[in-house]
Design a protein that fits this description.
alpha+beta, four-stranded mixed sheet, disordered N terminus, globular, single chain
């Protein structure tokens, strides 16, 4: 299951975020889990094309540090920020892959378990303003 989510997420990032004439703005924030800043959480912003348009910007992602803070970078670049406008947000536990063998991928587990609703919820959106934001914060809860 985890492998499917991670593989699907990589494919979304690689193929859905192609080609953009959109603007990019700096985005950072803090992720808490049950009220506590949490490390090793992956946050992904996937631009949503405005109605009547097919072109969207690149997706952006970041991983939280021990203070729960993350800073987004456009996928495949060193450019900090995210595409301006409406973005779907996907949040999951981060897994650092050092071994890409099938066996290692099957055994890979995140250090922190995030409920799948934060990856699958199409209503989890954020509007990235042209001036950017340092308060794209997410308060997650887990039973």
């Amino acid at each position: 299951m985890l492998r499917s989510v991670l593989t699907g997420g990589v494919l979304v990032i690689l193929f859905c975020g192609c080609g953009s004439d959109g603007k990019v703005a700096a985005v950072s924030g803090i992720v808490t889990l049950n009220g506590k800043p949490t490390a090793d959480i992956a946050v992904t912003f996937q631009p949503i094309a405005p109605e009547g348009q097919n072109v969207v910007g690149l997706s952006a992602s970041g991983v939280t540090g021990s203070d729960g803070r993350y800073t987004l970078k456009l996928h495949g670049t060193q450019t900090k920020g995210a595409t301006v406008g409406k973005n779907q947000v996907r949040i999951t536990g981060h897994v650092e892959f050092t071994d890409m063998s099938e066996e290692a991928l099957n055994k890979a587990k995140p250090k922190v378990n995030i409920p799948t609703r934060y990856w699958n919820d199409p209503k989890l959106e954020i509007n990235v303003p042209p001036s950017g934001t340092s308060s794209a914060d997410f308060q997650l809860t887990s039973p």
